[in-house]
Design brief:
The chain is globular. The chain has 602 residues and is an alpha/beta fold. The chain has a seven-stranded mixed β-sheet, with helices on both faces. The chain has a four-stranded parallel β-sheet with strand order 15-14-16-17, with no helix packed on it. The relative contact order is 0.12. It starts with a helix and ends with a strand. α7 packs across α8. β23 and β24 form a beta hairpin. The protein contains 20 helices and 24 strands.
Length: 602
């Protein structure tokens, strides 16, 4: 399976025909809108929205911010990739880009691209830094992937090349059944529709009942019998991110571990409800729904680890009014508790488990008592996210920080002042206006002028960015917010302004660009015919990380102190806080970018 997956990645990187970069915009859901209507507004399909917004296939809600793939940044027919006149420049590989597409974009051959960048001969990866020489002329590329029958040689060449690259892959003839579509067939093949279309170019004319298509055989790529735990993880629902520590490589399989889940429902209640529903949107009780979503994610993590050879004991406890009775631990097993959601009893449970030094992992630390060193907050809180971006700004002594502040946001003004006492504040009038000179007089030449928006007034964003854009030839200017929900909807304030002024903000979750993320979403969609809601991803990541840390040769506490990990959507970087417990400091700093729209900068 690992070889099969690697071949798919090679196939995707080298021969995917969709070579145009897909820009994105943000859309805030309004009353009466659904994914279909939003897709019509922006000229994209619901499936494209589902892919970028886990859980949106289940339900969306008013005020939710969706990431929308946009072709508006390009012309409706052809877009021109403009390059400088320099003979050599650097390009950072973005998601969806291929060697074929880049060579075409920059007017060079794939051989020349590889010759100038030998590190990509084994495959192109997101984040690779490429040196582009010669051939800088603009090249017109379609704004959206286009498949036609006018150039079948391209498709044939791609299919033949992938066959030669790994002759262990086998195919069989499959007859299309009623109601099957290109999308459902590609899910069955565990491929993207574009990949499946390259394998079966005749489908460009439509999918017909009784039609014969080529389907890859499952398990036709033989896996080495001496595969490690990491190799086995590739064939499960997710692989560990390669950017941080891989705890799967250092597991002590002889170690006895016990994990307890605390839910407001019994295991039978959770399991029975999961079996009875097709989608989570069927569950009207929001508390029950979020616990079900987390539980499913946890199940997937447990199944994946078992396939990797892990052995551990599990217990699911329904937390009720009576106190938990902790069973003795004569075998000195490594124990941990996952209590996912905020509850008035969290602190009570933490106190009980503290007597045996049992770690309690939760999404949100509600404890106010100091000294509870056994509580681990698994998802970065709003406070942690604020601290991360302010600390990121503070690290550069050449930054001149200006804060455009609304009077009603007194708490955030105090927060910023404590972290950045040198910051200069421009207080808005009640209607969100200010005098142009009041802002201009705060800008400094020779400094990086970081302008923090601490307001949610669209009119202020419009007037401020218009003024700042007129000054970019005189000053170095960059925008920031400490609370991402303050960023206006793209329909109200164009994101082009933020891209030029490189607006940055903190995020508790990644940009979904890793192979681990893509594999998880692909596997989940195959199993449940929908994209995973965020709570499912939380359940997977937190359970997966907790069990791996418990299974290390050292103690759980040492594994926490010494290792930073990342899986599907969360980076785990636990640090002690002032109360003595632990916060996850794994915050991503995201920046709007003129080329890639959004990128991680920390």
């Amino acid at each position: 399976m690992k070889i099969f997956y690697n071949v798919f990645i090679f196939f995707l990187c080298c021969f995917q025909l969709a070579t145009a970069q897909q820009n994105t915009i943000k859309h805030k859901v309004k009353k009466g809108e659904n994914v279909y209507r939003i897709g019509l507004k922006y000229g994209v399909s619901p499936e494209e929205i589902y892919q970028l917004n886990p859980g949106s296939s289940e339900s969306i809600y008013i005020g939710q911010v969706l990431i929308i793939p946009s072709s508006k940044e390009n012309s409706s027919t052809n877009s021109v990739a403009t390059q400088t006149n320099k003979s050599s420049f650097t390009h950072i590989v973005r998601q969806g880009e291929t060697k074929f597409g880049l060579a075409k974009q920059f007017g060079i051959s794939i051989a020349q691209l590889e010759q100038d960048n030998p590190h990509i001969k084994g495959g192109l990866q997101v984040g690779h830094e490429l040196t582009i020489n010669k051939g800088n002329r603009p090249v017109s590329t379609p704004s959206k992937p286009s498949y036609t029958t006018s150039n079948p040689s391209t498709v044939t060449e791609a299919v033949e090349t992938i066959k030669k690259s790994n002759d262990k892959i086998q195919y069989y003839s499959y007859t299309v059944k009623p109601k099957e579509t290109l999308y459902s067939l590609s899910v069955q093949a565990e491929m993207k529709p574009s990949e499946f279309l390259i394998l079966n170019p005749d489908l460009i004319n439509g999918v017909k009942v009784g039609q014969t298509v080529k389907m890859p055989k499952k398990g036709s790529a033989t896996v080495n019998s001496k595969s490690t735990a990491t190799d086995k993880a590739t064939s499960t629902i997710a692989a560990t991110s390669s950017r941080y520590d891989n705890l799967a490589k250092t597991v002590d399989f002889s170690k006895n571990t016990e994990l307890m889940f605390l839910f407001p429902y019994s295991e039978k209640e959770l399991s029975d409800r999961l079996r009875s529903i097709n989608t989570f949107s069927e569950v009207q009780d929001s508390v029950f729904r979020q616990n079900l979503e987390f539980y499913r994610g946890a199940q997937l993590a447990i199944d994946s680890l078992k396939k990797m050879g892990f052995k551990f004991n599990l217990d699911i406890v329904k937390m009720e009014n009576e106190k938990l009775l902790l069973k003795p631990n004569p075998d000195k097993n490594s124990r941990a508790v996952i209590w996912p959601f905020k509850n008035t009893k969290t602190e009570e449970a933490a106190l009980m488990f503290a007597t045996q030094n049992i770690p309690v992992i939760t999404l949100e630390n509600t404890s106010t008592k100091p000294g509870l060193a056994n509580i681990y907050e698994a998802v970065p809180s709003q406070t942690t996210q604020r601290e991360a971006i302010l600390n990121y700004i503070k690290r550069n002594p050449n930054n001149n920080v200006i804060v455009i502040n609304d009077k009603y946001r007194r708490e955030s003004k105090s927060f910023i002042s404590n972290w950045l006492p040198e910051a200069q504040f421009l207080d808005l009038k009640n209607n969100g206006t200010f005098k142009d000179d009041d802002l201009l007089n705060l800008l400094q030449k020779g400094k990086n002028n970081i302008v923090i928006f601490d307001t949610d007034k669209n009119s202020t964003y419009l007037s401020s960015t218009t003024l700042l854009l007129s000054q970019v030839s005189k000053y170095d200017i960059q925008l920031a917010v400490i609370d991402p929900e303050l960023i206006p909807d793209d329909a109200e304030v164009s994101s082009k302004r933020f891209r030029i002024l490189q607006l940055m903000y903190p995020s508790a979750t990644a940009l979904k660009q890793s192979n681990a993320t893509n594999l998880f979403i692909k596997k989940y969609t195959y199993l449940y015919k929908s994209t995973p809601p965020q709570n499912v991803i939380y359940g997977f990541d937190i359970t997966f990380d907790t069990l791996l840390r418990m299974a290390q040769p050292e103690s759980f506490e040492n594994a926490v102190k010494n290792n930073v990990t990342e899986y599907v959507n969360i980076k785990f970087d636990y640090r002690p806080n002032a109360k003595g417990s632990y916060d996850n400091k794994g915050v991503y700093i995201i920046q709007y970018d003129a080329e890639s729209f959004l990128k991680e900068v920390n």
